[in-house]
């Protein structure tokens, strides 16, 4: 039943994607109210269902067969199994597309053309269809046919060249970010593109094909670092936790660990110096302005390090907060979810689950006053909604669905 308190309650989405980037976009659309049907391979489903441990456990402590990885990107969807290699399965997708608004897929370039499930084929059935293709390298160019994975793209797209300790330090070398950030960012860009295409459709009456590539997104996400290179002509180097354009903006040792200082302007720097007991640093022409601090970074950071080790992290954080200096600890995830602010924002939530009883999830960070995010369905078990979707979208009877089951189509 349509709930008009949800922003996208009038949208139907077929999510043919798997792993993370495509499913992330599908989950975001689903959180915003869209009816998202996740189309999966019979028997195996999304690759990430098997990407464990850890596994969600049932009430008796037995594995439910759903990995934590899969759970992170498939909330609010309905799962239907269809074998698209089977002609009857292809026909089933075409029937579903007639009433769909959006298709999300992340097959290799032209991977769906052999089944006549590519954009050209499906848009001839439904000219209003918004068809979003997510690939590693895009639909064009010499690398278009290559498979792309987040780790690979983090390396090829430059992110790892600026992530890690500088050469000459212990532990030096390129590092990937600790989460598949390229996939997540690609999912976000894909969602923006889908919503933009839908807005355009409201004016023109026609859908369109969206080409989103992990490599393109990774490069776009380099933001100021890419701009630093394009304007300055020098490729940025790895700087550990330091910032290329702002000082001090990094981690500093304390008496019991580390803290982060994120000074964004000269006024904050003066306050920072006062807390450290060295107000004279802010008056020194070598450090009074940010460009001067960047130039004399090595000397200033060494001085700060000698002071910050004198007090524990919590004490520094408290003092800096009073002074209006951005400062915080480096939390492990148990501390993240125990943080009072994180709790107040409800970033950890639970949903009822048919196998496990309840499943813990990270909440959607979007807060909307009139059409808030809703949590209607936990991440589905494989094929959980096959009968339901075929009946509600296509008005198929049980006998017809059962016949498809016997053929191995669903």
TrEMBL record:
Domain of life: Bacteria
Enzyme class: transferase
Coiled coil: none
InterPro entries: CoA-transferase_III_domain, CoA-Trfase_fam_III, CoA-Trfase_III_dom3_sf, CoA-Trfase_III_dom_1_sf
Alphabetized UniProt keyword annotations: Transferase
Location of the region described as Disordered in the Swiss-Prot/TrEMBL record: 44-63
Enzyme Commission identifier(s): 2.8.3.19
Keyword Transport tagged: no
GO molecular function terms attached to this record: transferase activity
PANTHER family assigned: SUCCINATE--HYDROXYMETHYLGLUTARATE COA-TRANSFERASE
Name this protein carries in UniProt: Acetyl-CoA:oxalate CoA-transferase
Species in which this protein is naturally found: Paraburkholderia nemoris
